[in-house]
Design brief:
By secondary structure, this protein is an alpha/beta fold. The chain is built from 22 helices and 31 strands. The structure holds adenosine-5'-diphosphate (ADP) and zinc ion (ZN) (2 copies).
């Protein structure tokens, strides 16, 4: 059947699909999921993806024709298209925005004005050398003899024969030019001479950018008795439920259990997606997976360049079990890869906030979107955490999810002992050494004395969060954002953590001209500096955004710590999750208070999770670990719960609070933020939208108001929060909100507004 029209998703933030005419010349080749080239607007050509072919004449005139079909076979499958549509509906963005987040940028030759399209993706080729023809044994010997007075040439040919083990009658194998040069200690000139003599010849061969390992797969480890019981209860839960939550304490062997489920799926010929919230975590787990599953295991995260991403994409799409990926480990964006045959999705550390993308659109939650993806594949979802999110645990309570628990650590090692160190008291008694309590220093000293390792956690990077005039209290702020500038000592600059603005350190106060500028508070950089002073012979390293900008930085730091070339590692939340170090026995939390006092309805839940996670790094092998939590408020309820590793009390308290004050998961939440460069105009438009929404939603509308950070990159911001009862249709509410926004957009001058909708903004 041939079709007249194609609906195309274009990489634009405009909601809706775009219909084009299919010219006869493409009626055979155009297919759903292929990229096509079309004109949009006056001049610009775009590549987009065909999402539907049909014969329903659209109600508009002058339908433009498709200009070119780019692909020979589809690059996006049917399930992906459905998934994009769900994300675009639920998160209230365009399918084009989803597509842009989903596909490697190299798939979109943007701003291209030529037909046919020039592909941005280029297969990687390397120079190889091979024999120019199939020489007989006799002929080869003659050649070698003839080269006896040209030792370099002789050696180059011999090296080639050595490397390939060539014998007459065998297939001619190419050898990497670089390898041959090294082996023969030869030069390109020599190879050139040999090729002029028609002895050797050069060829370009396509090589992948992705690394393969050569190891022989190891059998799986045997599950412990407790693990086996948990494994079986997950199997049972899956009999009745599509989604199961595994609540397993840190180091109980959740990963080990996942591995057993993966094996089962791979044996059935199914694909598995395994997600983690942070790149830093992938580095250890990928080795564990590759050990068992070898080269069918792929990895995906933002540190891959665009060309590599295309290759990963192709390997996931490749259904050949020998060459394609069957198991993919990745961070949140990996849910967009072209899986064709998922049997299981594993979401590890399911509670983690990094699964949510806040900016730009699509503002999706990867856990929730992955659950939808699994549903489209009729696959199961296994959520895992040592401190599940309130919403997931609530789904268990409600009977929506299956549940399994694993309460003991592998090897029956006790959960770490938690010691609270009262900073207020220590300051009062003048016992603090810079930012360290005696309890913390004592524990670190003890660990170092036994050649054990230490992690110090501080959730702020840089040297100090702000500097201040000691005379008048003046604080330098960003010129573009309503935030204090953070002092970075390494580069000796003040940096804005919201926009990246950088400026030199003022020698005088900008207000009273005094020279008494002092640093306030502390970040990871300062802790690094000061711990080095206290323990001068310890080997200290730091892991945060600033020290991990290079592609392999995470990997290097983690390796160094594993190999015990680092004694004390200081870091932000990057080091708090999922990592498994044999010799790490002491964890210090420098300041638990700034976690707890964060103004957000999830602050307590998040603090509990973070403290539980970071504690979980300590004492994972031979013996119990020790965690020192520094706080000015040791009586704090959450801290008391962490002390007892008491997840259930935390859940109950949070659930109670949220029911009372109407917060998720007991209501839906949508946040609209409006940005404008002009404050008065912003107020005006925010007022209009707020008023309109109030007539529709009444008291469910909160705001408009200025958020905590009311200006970023010169844009003033106001937000409107919508809280909707669970009983009311989400789809209908979203529709009403979109219509209201469309009405606002009709106002003269409203085009200078930026409007962002965030569904489940937490
Ligand atoms: P979790 O994911 O729950 O934090 P892991 O799977 O990382 O726990 O397990 C913690 C440690 O115990 C790891 O070093 C792991 O190799 C080891 N371990 C767990 N289960 C087993 C097992 N069944 N056999 C051997 N080692 C195990
Ligand atoms: Zn001053
Ligand atoms: Zn800024």
């Amino acid at each position: 059947m041939t079709f007249k029209f194609a609906d195309i998703i274009l990489p634009l933030a405009i909601r809706g699909r775009f219909t084009y005419l299919i010219p006869d010349e493409f009626s055979e080749t155009i297919k759903q999921g292929k990229r096509v080239l079309v004109q949009f607007g006056n001049k610009k050509l775009y590549s987009g993806v065909v999402c539907r072919l049909h014969n329903d004449t659209p109600g508009i005139e002058n339908i433009r024709p498709v200009k070119d079909v780019i692909d020979t076979s589809p690059v996006v499958n049917d399930i992906q298209l459905k998934h994009w549509q769900w994300i675009s509906d639920y998160y209230m963005c365009s399918e084009g925005e989803v597509m842009k987040a989903a596909m490697p940028a190299a798939f979109f030759p943007e701003g291209e004005t030529s037909v046919p399209v020039i592909e941005k993706y280029k297969p990687k080729e390397e120079s190889f050398i091979k024999l120019a023809s199939e020489f007989t044994e006799k002929k080869l010997n003659e050649i070698l003899d003839s080269l006896s007075r040209a030792p370099k040439q002789y050696e180059t040919l011999s090296a080639y024969l050595r490397l390939t083990g060539y014998a007459s009658g065998m297939e001619i194998k190419p050898v990497r030019k670089s390898l041959l040069l090294k082996e023969a200690e030869s030069s390109p000139g020599i190879i050139e001479v040999l090729s002029v003599k028609s002895i050797l010849t050069a060829v370009s061969i396509e090589v992948g950018r992705l690394k393969n390992t050569e190891n022989i797969p190891e059998p799986l480890r045997k599950l412990s008795e407790a693990q086996l019981i948990t494994y079986n209860s997950i199997c049972n839960a899956f009999k009745g439920k599509e989604i199961t939550l595994l609540h397993g304490v840190t180091s109980s062997g959740k990963t080990e259990i996942y591995i057993h489920f993966i094996e089962e799926q791979l044996k059935k010929g199914k694909q598995v997606l395994y997600t983690l919230p942070e790149i830093a975590l992938t580095s250890q787990i990928i080795l564990r997976l590759k050990k068992h599953f070898g080269n069918v295991t792929g990895i995906y995260h933002s540190r891959f360049n665009d060309q590599e991403r295309v290759e990963i994409w192709k390997k996931v799409a490749d259904e050949n079990p020998c060459t394609g990926y069957r198991l993919l480990l990745g961070v949140r964006s990996s849910i967009f890869l072209p899986f064709s045959n998922l049997g299981l999705v594993i979401i590890d550390e399911e509670h983690d906030g990094s699964y949510k993308q806040h900016d730009p659109a699509p503002r999706y939650h990867a856990r929730d979107s992955a659950i939808i993806l699994a549903g489209l594949h009729k696959a199961k979802t296994l959520l895992g955490s040592a401190s599940p999110s309130v919403e997931s645990y609530n789904n268990v309570v409600q009977g929506k999810y299956g549940f399994a628990v694993l309460k003991e650590r592998y090897g029956l090692i006790k959960l770490p002992e938690i010691i609270l160190a009262n900073t207020r008291e220590a300051y009062r008694k003048r016992l603090m050494v810079s930012h360290f309590t005696p309890e913390l220093l004592h524990a670190v000293e003890e660990a170092l004395g036994k050649n054990e390792q230490v992690i110090l956690f501080q959730n702020r990077r840089g040297f100090s969060p702000y500097i201040e005039c000691s005379e008048c209290g003046w604080i330098p702020v960003c010129i573009q954002c309503a935030v204090n500038l953070t002092y970075h000592k390494g580069i000796n600059k003040l940096v804005c953590h919201y926009c990246g603005f950088t400026t030199s350190l003022p020698s005088r106060c900008g207000s009273c001209n005094s020279t008494g500028m002092v640093t306030r508070g502390f970040g990871t950089e300062k802790i690094e500096d000061e711990i080095k002073i206290v323990f001068p012979s310890a080997r200290v390293a730091r892991m945060d955004q600033d020290t991990t900008r290079n592609k392999n930085a995470f990997h290097k730091i983690i390796r160094a710590f594993e190999e015990q070339r680092i004694d004390i590692l200081i870091g932000t939340q990057m080091i708090s999750k999922g990592l498994d170090f044999e010799n790490l026995t002491v964890v210090g939390v420098l300041n638990a208070d700034n976690l707890l006092n964060y103004p957000d309805f999830r602050a307590h839940e998040r603090s509990f999770q973070l403290l539980e996670q970071v504690s979980g790094r300590a004492g994972r092998r031979q013996k119990q670990g020790k965690v020192i939590i520094q706080t000015a408020d040791p009586a704090n309820k959450i801290i008391r719960m962490v002390l007892r590793h008491d997840y259930l009390s935390m859940f109950k308290m949070q659930a109670e609070e949220r029911k009372t004050f109407n917060y998720p998961p007991f209501c839906r939440m949508i946040r609209i933020s409006l940005k404008h460069k002009d404050r008065a105009q912003l107020n005006n438009y925010a007022g209009i939208l707020g008023g309109d929404l109030k007539t529709l939603f009444g008291k469910r509308i909160l705001g408009p108001e200025y958020p905590l950070i009311s200006r970023i990159q010169s844009w003033y911001i106001k937000t409107i929060l919508i809280k909707i009862e669970k009983e009311i249709s989400g789809a209908k509410s979203r529709q009403l909100i979109l219509e209201s926004i469309e009405r606002l957009e009709m106002f003269k001058g409203a085009s200078s507004l930026r409007i962002a909708i965030d569904v489940d903004p937490y």
